[in-house]
Amino acid sequence: MTDTIDPILNDRVSRRAVLAAASVVPATALVAAHAQSSGNAPLSSGRTHNKAALVTGASRGIGAAIAQRLARDGYQVVINYRGSKDQAVALVREIQRAGGQALEAQADVGDSQAVRQLFDTCEQSFGGIDVVVANAGVAHTVPFAEMTDEDFEHIMNVNIRGSFYTLREAARRVREGGHIIALSSSLTVLRSPGSGPYAASKAALEVFVNVLAKELAGRQISVNAVAPGPVNTSLFTTGKTPEQIAAVAARTPHKRLGEPADIAAVVAALCGPDCAWINGQVIFANGGLV
Ligand SMILES: NC(=O)c1ccc[n+]([C@@H]2O[C@H](COP(=O)([O-])OP(=O)(O)OC[C@H]3O[C@@H](n4cnc5c(N)ncnc54)[C@H](OP(=O)(O)O)[C@@H]3O)[C@@H](O)[C@H]2O)c1
After folding, report:
1. What's the CA-to-centroid distance between 285 and ligand 1, angstroms?
2. pTM of the model
3. Alpha carbon of 36 to ligand 1 centroid (Å)
C-alpha cells in the first residue's frame, strides 16, 4: 500500500492541543522507572522466568523489536506473522542464538479460528500466557474521497477485528498478574488529513483497552495501549520521499523518527513491576512530536 498524502506532514494540531485532548503518561517516565527497578540491567538472554509472551505481527518492524526485547527480558516468546515466514524464522533463530526461547506461528489476526489456534500454540509450547501484545496492524492514509471499499475493509479487518479477536482471547487466557498491551497511534489525537479510517480504527482499540482493563478486575492483569508517533518501519516510510521523512523527523525535539526499539522499551516497561499501577491507559510514545 502506498500513502498518497502524509498525515503527519499535513497535521496542524499543536502538541499542546494533543496533550489537552488525551490522558497522556510520558513514556520516558515509564522507561526510566523500569530501568531503575532493574538496575538498568535487564535479564540477559536465556534467563527465562517461565513466563510466556505472544506478540502479533512480530515478523518485522515494531513487533519484531518487542519480541526481541521481551526475549531479552526473559520471556519465552511466540512470534506471530501473517505472510513473512522467512523473517519470522530468522528472528526466532536470532533469539535462540542469544540464548532465548522463541517460536514462530502463522495466523491472520482477522481470522478468529486462527487466533484461537495461535493462543493454543503458546499455551501448549510454553505452558501458559503472561503477556499479549496486540501489535499487528496496517495503515493506509488517503483522503476520504480516495479511499476504496477494499482498503477501508482491510484496515478495519486487521486493526479492529484482528485486535478484538486478539484481546478477546487474551481476556480468556492471560494468567493472573499478566499484561495486555495494544499498539495504537498518536494519530488518534493528531487526526491529520488522510488518517480518518486508520485513526478511527486505533481509537476503537483504545476503547477496547479501557473497557477490558475494567472487565479484568480482580485478576491483577494490566491492560494498556501504547500510541507511537512516526516510527522508522516500512509502515511509515513506504510511499514517502526522503525529504518528507526528514521533515517529519524534524518535528520532534530529538530531530529523529522513533525506532522500533524505542517502542519496545515502553512495552517492556509496562510489563515491569514498577508499572503495575498503570492500567487502562494510553501511553503516547512519540518523542514529543509537535
Ligand atoms: N510505524 C509507525 O510509524 C507506527 C506509528 C504508530 C502506530 N504504529 C502501529 O504499530 C504496529 C506495528 O507497526 P509497524 O510499523 O511495525 O508495521 P510493519 O512494519 O508494517 O509490520 C506490520 C506487522 O504486522 C503483521 N501483520 C499485518 N497484517 C497482519 C494480519 N492480518 N495478521 C497477522 N499479522 C499481520 C505483519 O506481518 P507479515 O509481514 O507477516 O504480513 C508485520 O509483522 C501497528 O499496529 C501500527 O499501526 C506504527
Report:
1. 16
2. 0.88
3. 30
Distance of CA 54 to the CA centre of its chain: 12
* Residue positions counted in the chain: 290
- For the Cβ of 110 lying below 6 angstroms from any atom of ligand 1, the answer is yes
Burial class for 217, CB neighbours closer than 10 Å (0-12, 13-18, 19+): exposed
Instruction: Please give the average per-residue pLDDT across 115-123, as a whole number.
Output: 98
Top CATH class of 15-283 equals alpha beta
Ligand 1 contact, 136 CB (< 6 A) = yes
> Is the CB–ligand 1 distance for residue 286 below 6 Å?
no
Q: Lowest mean pLDDT of 34-43, 85-94, 189-198, name the range.
A: 34-43
Query: Which atom of ligand 1 is least distant from the CA of 58?
Result: 43
- Cβ–ligand 1 distance for 225 under 6 Å, the answer no
Note if 165 is an active site residue.
Answer: no
Index of the ligand 1 atom closest to the CA of residue 228: 6
The ligand 1 atom at the shortest distance from the C-alpha of residue 137 is 45
Local confidence band at 290 (pLDDT 50, 70, 90 cut-offs)? confident
Query: What does the pLDDT average to over 180-184?
Result: 98
Sheet order of strands, 102-106 included: 102-106, 76-81, 52-55, 131-134, 179-183, 222-228, 282-285
How do residues 130-157 score in pLDDT, each as one tens digit?
A: 999 999 999 999 999 999 999 999 999 9
To which H or E segment does residue 52 belong?
strand 52-55
Question: What integer is the mean pLDDT of 124-128?
Answer: 98
Q: What are phi and psi of 26, to 5 degrees?
A: -60, 125
Residue 41 in this model has a pLDDT that exceeds 70: no
H or E element, residue 118? helix 112-126
